[in-house]
User: Fold these one by one.
Assistant:
Number 1:
Amino acid sequence: METVLPKTVAETASGAAKIAPTFFSHASRMPDKQAIWCEGATATYQELAKLVCRWSNAMSASGVKHGDHIGVILPNSIEFSALMLVAADLGAVLVPLNTSLTPSAVHKAFAAAEVKHVVSTAMLLKSLLVKPATSRTDGSGAKNFPTPPDFSTVSGLWLSVDEAIEGATLLADLLENASPHSQPLNAALEEDALILTMTSGSTGDPKPIILTQRTKFNRARAAVELYDITAQDRTLAATPLYHSLAERLVLIPLLTGGTSILMSRFSATAWLECVHEQAVTFTIAVSSQLKQIAGQLDGGHAYDITSLRCIVSSSALLDPQVKTELLAKFDCDFHECYGASEIAIASNLDRVSAKTKLRSVGIAAPGVNIKIIGKNNEMVGTGEIGEIVCKTPMLFGGYFKRPDLTQAAMWGEYFRTGDMGRLDEDGFLYFLGRTKDIIISGGINIYPADIEAVVNQHASVAESAAFAFPDEQLGEVAAIAVVPTNKPEFDLKQLRFHCCERLADFQQPRKFFIVNELPKNSMGKLMKQQLVKTYTINSKC
Amino acid sequence: MQDSIRPFVLELLEKKSRLPKNFDDTSDFIKAGIVDSMGIIKFILELESRFKIEITEADIESGEFRSIQGLVTMINRKMATGG
């Protein structure tokens, strides 16, 4: 059934950067090929295409319009992957959120992204559909115990993909509203937004990143060209689908006629088992995952992972020692990439270059221009240190309804990464640190302001500052320095329970430093770098 | 209270991840990645807060802290001995 397949995404779509038509063209040419596997469930191209068509038609019939924003709180699943294609067909915009966010953080994110409809599981919807009650206290010293937020402004479709729940429509019932023979709506344009990625969960100032259909398509295309991906590849996604990396890893195979292998949760053992059983050939993994996997490879294992032809390390940089270890342990093509949510891949270091440029993050990816600018916003010379800026076809579509922030993030056509670096005489980029106040833990961005806002709510806290703390397994974890209002009576356990109630999994501070005061300059401005230096060296807590 | 331990633990796990089809009370939820290094802190705090117990580093390293069955036994024991 399978025909000769084009090598690049560009060829599959006759140059048009449209996601749904490209997927449907593969489905019509090779209906019986396996399109996706997720934890034992599987779908052929024909089965997936039928689900997508029926779902987008049913959504449209239920009032979901082109341009509408759909909040998505789903675990990795075939349904989540299908929903990306539904949105691409319908011209709707997905707002995927971390499944561990608290209801109030979900509420803020929905408000910031102007969400009209919600797709989730019955279990997760249950916590959102609790009716708001009057304010109460939990006796823990919190100034305000969180009251269930009012989601009545999210007035469109509430959809449960698995079980029936009061207040939501069951996906199986929704699909009954459309013919099993539904055709694609093909209602989207290349410049339509497809995904709004949240950059901040619970503060008053989230900055949703717009990723258009064209951006998503170009990002998949760049990966295809950079890593020689073909229709024969079985591409593994082992990070959550609310994260743009996993979205790309699912779209790459579905846009190239390959097979998507989707893990619903990660552990090093489960990853090895999955690669072995599903004969995975390609993946981009978060560097902290690769470190854990490399640890498993130490003691000998029963898994045959020789199907792997290419692995890419992403999200946080590898230190040279770990890089050397991984190159030795993975007997396949190995790349390390550097990038950011707003630009995807900026640079690539391959196995050959790693031999002589181990400490670099590689050269600019195809189609990408990298420059270094100094404090006066002018380009600096070769070898000089400055801010890394990138011009790329993978550029985001701006921050949603924040043209001021979008403009501030640009240097002409170049995106300002906020990262410090230098370029050597051969054009290799060296990453030298971040200037943005952000913690990257297991590939997930954590915003210190989100944590500080919650900790500062507690009656026993005068002020606090969250910062990145080095971690063997996750690269970095969140640490926080706390100035108590009354140190002798301060109860850390109560503060931790307070954080547990109000922050998501990934935002929980792992290290607490109880201090008399925070380091500030003569103007009273917090000197976070000094805090980091002091406490990451003296790591007792 | 004791009868409520298992449903509470099960719900916490279900909130973290869709459970595999063959998952039962003896399945290893750490090995399966249901409670991963990212989610373990909140998982522990939720158990400590709900059952008024203290979970130590040694508890986390123990074989009990890997399955629903083991956790129910551990929590029951801690509640009986006052934490």
Number 2:
Amino acid sequence: MLYIKCPFCGYRSQKEFAYGGDGTIKRPELNQEISDEKWNEFVYLRKSPNGKHIELWHHVAGCRQWFKVQRDTVTHEIFQTTKMNEEIK
Amino acid sequence: MQKYSIFSLIKNAFSNHEKWDLAWKDPSPKKEYDVVIIGGGGHGLATAYYLAKEHKITNIAIIEKGWIGGGNIGRNTTIIRSNFLYDDNARFNEFGMNLWRNMSQELNFNVMFSPRGIINLAHSDAQMNTYARRGNSMRLNGIDAVLLNREEVKKIIPMADFSENVRYPIFGGLAQPSAGTARHDAVAWGYARQADSMGVDIIQNCEVTGFNVSGGKIEGLRTSRGDIKTKKIGLCVAGSTNVLAEKLNMTLPIETHLLQACVSEPVKPVLDGVVTFGAGHFYISQSDKGEMVMGGDLDGYNSYAQKGNLPTIQHVLTGGVALFPFLSRLKMLRTWGGIMDMSMDGSPIIDKTHIDGLYLNCGWCYGGFKSVPSSGWTFAHTIAQDRVHELNEGFSLNRFSKGYLLDEKGLGTKTWIS
């Protein structure tokens, strides 16, 4: 069981959270011509690293805020959690 | 190669079964091969077998980091079916069903293929409608599909909860009577033994550390047991696809996730075929030993751990107990996990790549076991002929950018909820 530190509520059990996938994916800029290739990268292509992974989680049974987590995909150790507008260092 | 039969069994009984030939050799890698298959699981072994048998290419190496059959081919819940809605998936897997039916004879190895049927249960009228549609689609592709009503389902699985006051009453189900199960380890061993006998080198405990690519062409690969020259490489590494893709500077529409399964203590025969719960993610069958074999949801976040977490098992078995209340009184014998190459539309990829001589076989999500023969057969064709076969042309790598998705369940790109 993961023990996740919500940046707003503190440590809670995994059962309170929903996963939101890769947190490094950026949507292409608005109001610009976007190639099929760029859309493909944004919608479908994922690095899915073996090791440190920056991902999004949603404290769905708590404060309902989204936030970023840096977690190891092999050991599940969580190194950092930050608010959405902060960067993982 | 020694043929397995009742006569060889009797003959070897006289020498206390101590003089059987080894089923396959343990060679060291040669300097050069015509084709190198990375991954000694079901798909890799089957690919090598069909390359040798159908295309007469025998200078092949299978490179396996661990031991053959130690990955997902030995970790799955052994379900074989072709109950798909879309033509590309249905035709491909029905082609595989025919290979399954003859597999024990063809490989001279008893894979214990047992066509005991599968039932997908429906718990609402809407679900019955979608099953009717899928069943019709299956029948148009020549696959046996039977829509069952509540009473018909009750005859087949009377031990399910058919009482009136359940949260998800059983409305009926979609059955594929020709679906079934097989002994998964035997599939790996059978393909390995035949491939070895035709000259394929099965190289275990050999990790791929890099690739030699020059001018957009494959020239060879680097391994923990030395460099190997080759012009063609086939990737069959399931959950490790992204790790090898990174060494090739490729990013794929794949994420690696963990799936768990579990078995109970063995009990007397209670369940004939495979049953899937339609109101949650849970599937169950009974092994020949009597264990209830069960599986369900992914762990829910990217993982290479090869072992799972407890909340998911609890969640899956909650669904199981809702369907079959008797499960609550069984002890769990063991649980285990495997890492899955989850594609963005839930369907596989068997294709060439932008690198000349690099072929991709991945994205099996958690349905790779049933496709072992059809995947091996079509991937062997793709490698040998350097073009896709019509059976796997729908499984192209560029279908994502082109918009030709094969999203059976309509779940979209959230691989962790599929």
